[in-house]
Each structure stands twice: as structure tokens, then as C-alpha cells.
Amino acid sequence: MFTWNIPATKPIGSNADDPLASSSSESLSDMEDGSGPESQLTKCPAGKKFCKGSLLEAQKPTMPCHICCGELDFCRHCSCILCCRNVRSAFGGYSYFRCEAPVSEAYICGHVAHLDCALRCFLAGTVGGVFDIDAAYYCRRCDARSDLVPHATNLLEICKSIHSGANMEKILKLGICILRGTNREPAQVLLRQIETAYYKLKKGSPLGSIWDIYIYIFSESCIYIYFIFYLLDLLCYLCNCYLVIMSPLL
């Protein structure tokens, strides 16, 4: 079988003492890839029961591929281009990314990859050098770069709709890994929102109150504004005292 030779064995920034080092996107116990005996009745080369290949092809035709897609058990819509394992669709398919970069007027790339694999390969997130990506994904098949900020935004929305702290933690950690180190202001703002939600979750806040981020930010802003006005009032008071003391001498 072909291989893209994943160069790293650990996610970027992996450290046993760093709670955000690994996204662990494939460890959710309730994620099923849909493979099994029944899936052999479908046309999915990877044997996935709920393959959306036909629907996706009807929407956006994909490029001809005789490298990875030439393998008998590989499906460009279901198999990770980096590890060849099936991607999983739980929670809106948060754990993988599909490259929809146009490769011609008629076709898009259409290959998918686990974001955890892409982070290990330095093909996702913020990476310098030959890949030169900032909160983006670099496709090894078509060499296109895709913005990951919309995907990270979707991760935040997915978390707001689930009621499992463990699953929410894994999704938020993936979002942090994607955005960490970015130099783009919109991505930095989104990163702060995800980090705030993550630390509130780790602190033990009730799931319902985690998303009061904007209220929290507004409250913090009000404190700073109040402090500024307090300093201005104090400055005015000191100026008046100075004038009163110095006026007889003028």
C-alpha cells in the first residue's frame, strides 16, 4: 500500500505536562466508523457503511486519482490520506478535514485527512518552512492550502450542542492545537474564546455556564473601563489640588 510517510510520532508540542498538547481526536468511545460486514454491500472501497461519496461527487466532482485511490480498500471520501484509516462522522465529522481546493475548472481535490494526523505531519496549524501555513491545512495530494479558521469556528458551535464534558474537552483541545501559534488576528480572537471555554471546563464550571464567554469578556471590559474612569477622576482631583495650592504664588 502507498504511504505518505508520516514524519512525526507525536502531535506538535507534545508534552506530558501540557494538557493541550494532544487533541486525542480519535479516542472518543462513541465514534463508530460504520465499517463491518453490512458495509460490504455498499460501493465504498473502504467498506464504510455510510459512505457519502456518491452524494459528494454529485455536488462537486473530484479529480481523477491513481495514487491513493488506486488501492482496493481506499476511499477518498472515507479514508485518511495520511494513515489510510477510515474517518469518523460523529459530531459533524469534527476530527477530519476534506480538501475542496479546485484542481481544475471541473474538479476539486476531495481527499480527506484526520486533523490529528495532519498536526503530527506538520500539515495543519501554524507551520513555517516549506509548508508556510498559518491556521491552515496543507494537502499532500494536491499541494493546496486551506483555511482552518472556519473549521475551528464550527468546532466551537459543535461543543455548544453536546452535553458530554469529556467529548467537549477533546473537541476544544483539537481547536486549540489548530489555532495555537497563529499570527492572524481573527484566528487569535477565536483561539482566546476556545481557550476560555476549555479552562472553564477544566475548572469544573457547569456545562451550561461555559458559553457565557461574551458575558465574561464584557464584564472584564467593564471593570477596565471603570478603572480608567477612576484614574481620570483621580487625576482631575490632583490637578485641582495643585491649582489651589499654587494660586497664591502666581
TrEMBL record:
**Can you tell me where the transmembrane regions are?**
223-245
Q: What is its main location?
A: nucleus
Residue intervals of the Oberon-like PHD finger domain = 51-177
Coiled coil region boundaries: none
Keywords noted in UniProt: Membrane, Metal-binding, Nucleus, Transmembrane, Transmembrane helix, Zinc, Zinc-finger
Give the residue range of the signal peptide.
none
| Region named Disordered | 1-41
Gene Ontology terms, cellular component aspect?
nucleus
Tell me where it resides: Nucleus
Molecular function in Gene Ontology? zinc ion binding
Query: Per its record, how is this protein called by name?
Result: Oberon-like PHD finger domain-containing protein
